[in-house]
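Why this split exists: single-chain examples teach little about how molecules sit against one another. For that reason, every record in the complexes split bundles all components of an assembly together and asks for one structure covering all of them. Below is a record exactly as it appears in the raw files.
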Amino acid sequence: MQVLVIGLGNPDRGDDAVGVEVARQVAAERPDVTVLEFDDPSEAIDAWEPDDTVVVADAVSSGGHPGDIHVVDAVAQKLPTGRWSAGGTHALGLAAAVEIARALGRLPRSLVVVGVEAKHFGHGTPMADAVAAAVPAAVEAVLTALDDADALLTALDDADAVVASIDDLGGEP
Amino acid sequence: MTHKLNQGDHVLHVDTLARVEGEGGMHVVVKDGLVADVELRIFEPPRFFEAFLRGRAWTEPPDITARICGICPVAYQMSSCLAIEDACGVTVPEEIRLLRRLLYCGEWIESHALHIHLLHAPDFLGYAGAIEMAADHGAIVERGLLLKKTGNALMTLVGGRAIHPVNVRVGGFYRLPTVEELHSIRPALDQARDDAVATVALVGGLEFPDMVQPHEYVALRSPHGYPLESGSVVTSSGRAFDVADFGANVVEEHVARSNALHAHLDGTTPYVVGPLARYALNHDQLGPLAKQAAHDAGLGDECRNPFQSIVVRAVELVHAIDEAARIIDTWDGASAPFVDVPPRAGVGYGATEAPRGLLYHRYELAEDGTILDATIVPPTSQNQPSIEADLRAFVQDRLDLPHEELVRQCEQAIRNYDPCISCATHFLDLTVEEQ
């Protein structure tokens, strides 16, 4: 079991850099966490294992204000398609990658997606001010998601341990 | 939305897969029931990169141009290395060429596996996409993901990492993989080879819309086998020229509606690069297993139905896996990782075969190696006039389809070319205008 943070996006394409930037800042704060960067979301399916705790940071374009932050528990609910990075003719979007993993039974135990509303994706352009300004809050959202997942999984493991010990007691002659 | 043109609509516009900015789009003009024009708008990143490269050092293009595309970074690295080395008058040793070919095989495996199984197969099997297909055909999707993973693993082994490989430099590699490292991937390649042969059989049995392309086919041809990392240019009409003469034979036309440049042979003839062109001009150079798979799938010496590109892509997948295994089996690791490439004033040319077709680079260097000028002609801008020509014929026969179905079929036809409509852009905004 490992704890993974995945930053998605192309750092050279304006607001699309935000997922990678968030992941890099998380890496600086949490050296105990494995941080990966991809601009092809389908890489993520191979990066995680069933027992992993995963948080993905990505740009999202859902028509909201640039810099808005969306947090989705992707194990509990589907990601709306067509809003996340890298889709089109020869790559899969994040939603497609996650939903394929779900259909194949290959989601990790915990998967939270932190999306930052983005708008401009020009090559060689910097992130818009509103998007760059949202990075600290998005980093915080990733760290919170990690803590929440950790607490939940600890509770689940404790519950498993209690069940196991009850079984052990019940199994004694 | 189910409007039909023959119900009196003049302009139809639908956001289908659109998410961002609608950078890719298609506009159809119909006059008196006949398709008068088809325009495909494609955003093209290389234009930005050409400007960005000016003033940079001669050692930088492999790193900079690899960022153009997360799906085919190796293609950009290989073409840029060849062009810079050409400008500097350096030819790399055979071992370096072989390792480049091996790295390129990884990219072909990764890119073709993704396109065949997860992007194009759903079109043929009647699904909106890989998600929907996964529920009914999980094994096909799993096979595609496993093949893609093996391609990624090979790219990581040779290139340092799969996305934007960091181990490539002008003159060779920063570090060579050891024999043991390369042999570690052989079991995965054996599995991949079996899987790819099964995929050729699968896609060979699909039903294909009738279509015959009249276009000229253009590909590299190389003394080193089926073209990937080297070669000179040949065409289906019998032309043959060096990569250095590419600019004299291919004219790029600026089209106002798009920020892409459209390429024509001698300024007039549309042409096709990619799997169909490579196969037509190089099928004799395929390995025995790929040849057998092609034969079993019913492919002849040439395939001119663009919808069957999925079959040719699968045959190339078999070949790339076979070729990777062959290179690994003969690799002894005894070579310097790179040769020095001292700068000099001059012009250099490089072309290699990206998964989706011939990728051409040209650099002009100052004496100290500063880049004075850069030209990058990607496969998709070369294919664009042919894609539009295909669509003109294709749409004409389907004008009475409901709009959504027309969009779906057009997307399938565009996907035949696996076009590089750069990452994070989404197609297809389709507008149909009746005049």
